[in-house]
């Protein structure tokens, strides 16, 4: 014990990182199920080569953990925590190639102190495995390029492929790699190396399951991820709230000190490149090659498009290494203070639910809704249950209830991967149903008083029942409108 204490005293950075991770681990049992947790757990319970809205890596990970340790909210969160811890350790290894010991320790603490690491540790999303395989890809590519180790071209190809099998934005890895080689005077010759192209071919080969699933399903996933967003961007409508919203999100995820350092060094390097036509030395250029396309690229879209808060996360890996080159001890202390304050407030919200959340993106109320829904099915036997909010209510009820819960494809609406579960909706014909509709802006206990017009096209009669009110800590916190629908007739 004394040796451990002495080691931690002599390694302040490691102590801080362990402290943040221990805090997150202690908080795990208090975390409720998020809709994303339930949805990607559904992925894992319905194994497929890929899925409608994302590749399947996060689903496979949750399936492995729940098969080994059993199904529970804690195990799902623990899977996220373990994978994110591996990302932190991989980051340390990657950063050690670029930074001196003192700067390495600062970068290590910077990463561990961020809110985005906490989000990845608590919430199942494709970004959880993406960040791990992104970091491992960069380690392999560094070894291949700067240490001329041929084996790492192969390993890098595998890692890049697994990153793409986590999330489509991993395609930026190949773009960053080629961009670095094009602009690097010292390593441009590698563009003619067979090892580079072998690595890229391997990365494509590893992604074969995703491509084959899309081929089997009319490239539905690729179309979903591209068509709507391309259409929105092409409209080119300036929206200041998108831009300032993105700034707010990034300041939250990174905390103000780290975000401002990102902006500072980005401005410095871009200005030098555009005005003086001067690029940094090779190792710094390598880091920028995997930072600029994602961070600056997505930021450039924010005046005309709502960029989600997690889209820039891959850029944080090399961005924080670059920040480690610039941040002073004083600024690091300020970053830690911000982090402690935010994490304390975050933990109070998690444990005591002090501020009501007017959204379905919450960790409270789902288990209670499942119990109330089970009670309803006793009153209205032989009724199936469905909801209409893309995936959230349906996925959460599927997690807590033994029977199958359906989504809005019941009434002919697109339902993400629920459309690809192989359900024959005609087997539900002539059955009655309980339709659950979340009141996101819960204000009172009144009936909704109006019916979804689509319900009348699929059911003979629709009767609104008393809404389900969920209490948290003795206070009414969530509301769900309930409709009893008779004699379902599928149109497929």
UniProtKB/TrEMBL annotation:
Q: Which domain of life is it from?
A: Bacteria
Transmembrane annotation, as ranges: 12-34, 74-95, 107-123, 152-183, 195-213, 242-265, 285-305, 311-327, 334-355
GO MF annotation: an example: pentosyltransferase activity
The GO annotation for biological process reads:
lipopolysaccharide biosynthetic process
Q: Where in the cell is it found?
A: Cell membrane
What are the alphabetically sorted keywords of the record? Cell membrane, Glycosyltransferase, Membrane, Transferase, Transmembrane, Transmembrane helix
Domain Glycosyltransferase RgtA/B/C/D-like as annotated: residue spans: 53-213
Membrane topology type: Multi-pass membrane protein
Query: Chief localization class?
Result: membrane
Of the GO CC terms on this record, one is: plasma membrane
| Name of this chain's protein | Glycosyltransferase RgtA/B/C/D-like domain-containing protein
């Amino acid at each position: 014990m004394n040796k451990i204490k002495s080691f931690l005293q002599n390694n302040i950075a490691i102590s801080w990182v362990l402290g943040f991770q221990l805090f997150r681990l202690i908080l795990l049992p208090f975390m409720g199920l998020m809709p994303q947790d339930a949805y990607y757990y559904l992925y894992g319970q319905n194994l497929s080569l890929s899925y409608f809205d994302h590749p399947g890596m996060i689903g496979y990970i949750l399936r492995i953990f729940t098969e080994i340790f059993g199904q529970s909210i804690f195990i799902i969160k623990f899977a996220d925590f373990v994978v994110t811890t591996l990302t932190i350790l991989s980051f340390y290894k990657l950063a050690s190639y670029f930074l001196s010991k003192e700067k390495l320790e600062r970068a290590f603490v910077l990463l561990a102190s961020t809110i985005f690491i906490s989000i990845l540790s608590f919430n199942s999303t494709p970004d959880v495995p993406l960040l791990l395989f992104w970091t491992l890809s960069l380690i392999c590519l560094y070894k291949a390029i700067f240490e001329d180790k041929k084996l790492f071209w192969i390993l890098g190809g595998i890692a890049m492929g697994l990153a793409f099998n986590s999330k489509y934005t991993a395609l930026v890895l190949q773009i960053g790699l080629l961009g670095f080689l094009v602009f690097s005077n010292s390593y441009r010759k590698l563009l003619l190396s067979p090892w580079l192209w072998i690595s890229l071919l391997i990365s494509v080969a590893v992604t074969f399951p995703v491509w084959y699933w899309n081929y089997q399903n009319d490239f539905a996933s690729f179309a979903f991820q591209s068509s709507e967003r391309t259409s929105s961007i092409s409209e080119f409508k300036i929206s200041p709230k998108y831009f300032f919203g993105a700034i707010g999100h990034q300041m939250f995820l990174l905390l103000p000190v780290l975000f401002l350092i990102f902006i500072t060094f980005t401005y410095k390097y871009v200005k030098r490149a555009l005005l003086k036509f001067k690029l940094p030395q090779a190792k710094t250029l390598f880091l920028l090659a995997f930072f600029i396309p994602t961070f600056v690229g997505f930021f450039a879209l924010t005046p005309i498009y709502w960029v989600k808060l997690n889209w820039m996360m891959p850029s944080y890996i090399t961005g924080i290494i670059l920040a480690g080159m610039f941040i002073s001890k004083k600024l690091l202390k300020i970053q830690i203070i911000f982090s402690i304050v935010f994490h304390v407030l975050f933990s109070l919200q998690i444990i005591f639910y002090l501020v009501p959340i007017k959204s379905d993106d919450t960790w409270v109320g789902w288990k209670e809704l499942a119990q109330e829904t089970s009670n309803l099915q006793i009153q209205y036997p032989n009724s199936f249950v469905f909801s209409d909010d893309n995936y959230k209510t349906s996925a959460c009820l599927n997690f807590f209830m033994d029977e199958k819960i359906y989504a809005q494809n019941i009434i002919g609406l697109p339902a993400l991967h629920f459309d690809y579960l192989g359900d024959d909706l005609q087997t539900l014909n002539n059955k009655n149903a309980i339709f659950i509709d979340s009141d996101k802006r819960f204000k009172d206990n009144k009936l909704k008083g109006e019916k979804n017009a689509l319900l009348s096209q699929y059911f003979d009669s629709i009767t609104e029942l008393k809404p389900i009110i969920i209490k948290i800590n003795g206070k009414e916190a969530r509301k769900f409108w309930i409709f009893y629908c008779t004699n379902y007739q599928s149109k497929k």
